[in-house]
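Subject: Protein record for review, amino acid sequence with backbone structure tokens
Why sent: The fold of this protein is of interest and is recorded here as tokens.
Notation: Tokens come from a learned vocabulary of local backbone shapes, not from coordinates.
Attached in line: The record itself begins immediately under this heading.
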Amino acid sequence: MRTMSGLIFYKEAIKMSEVKKPKTYKEQLEILKERGLNVSDDERAIDFLSNVNYYNLTGYLVDYKSNNGKYTEGIAFDEIYNIYQCDKRFKNILNYAIEIVEHSLKTKISYHFAHEFGAMEYMNPDIFKDEREHEIFVEKFELAVHQNKNIPFVKHHIEHYNSQFPIWVACELFTMGTIYNFYSNLPTETQKAVAKDFKTGPLQLSNWIYCVKYLRNLTAHYMRLYNFAIQVTPKKCRKNFDKSFEPSHKVFDIVYTLKFLILDKSEWNNYIIPTIKNIFDRYSDYINISSYGFPANWEKLLLKD
């Protein structure tokens, strides 16, 4: 039945429009040149296209496209190439920061939950705010166990503990999406206890986790961050946010929340911030940091006291 459904979908799609034929790397380059992209080294450009999907690259050209489909006069391949490279390196350090946040959230949530309710009570729907949301969580968790059954710690708990995973073990299989859904469904007092570790309130923390989840999805799918309008806005926190902070509706807003979610001051101040600065300095001839939403005083805003 699934095969037939796929076949029907395929036939209907063919009726709607004729699918474009695949283009060689050289043909892709010719299209870009016809649209006005200046290319000084065809061989280098073709090599780049052979390693970076054409549609990924053209995402960086959207801002230079006019109504007639042509690119802004004078826009060069080298400029787009360097913006792409800057974006790639910027996303790498953000992924590093997100990983720190993810581990911290898992630790804090599982610690408070275990000490308040016990090791296995996360499977009990009566504890949570929304029974249906908890049911969805359990389904996703059981699927994660099945998909990761050969990972040593998962296999160990399946074989030696009859598939019983205490919360501090179970959380290792949580994605950022799972963390958000699980935290949002916790009893309010438990949410407050976790949020207190981050010196904020549960509404703010829930929103910040959602924002980080959103950013993780963007970076995981190699989406452009440069001059990209994000669809989420972090909730302000009087305890943490600088009074001068105003949403840019670009990635800086979420980076700003990472400042409060990463509890290791040295890691944030002495590695993450300098790495971002080095990236921006390296590509300063090609990028404008405002296209990431970064204000002129971004270092002062981001550094932990």
Notes: The chain has 14 helices and no strands. The radius of gyration is 23 Å. The chain has a mean pLDDT of 93.
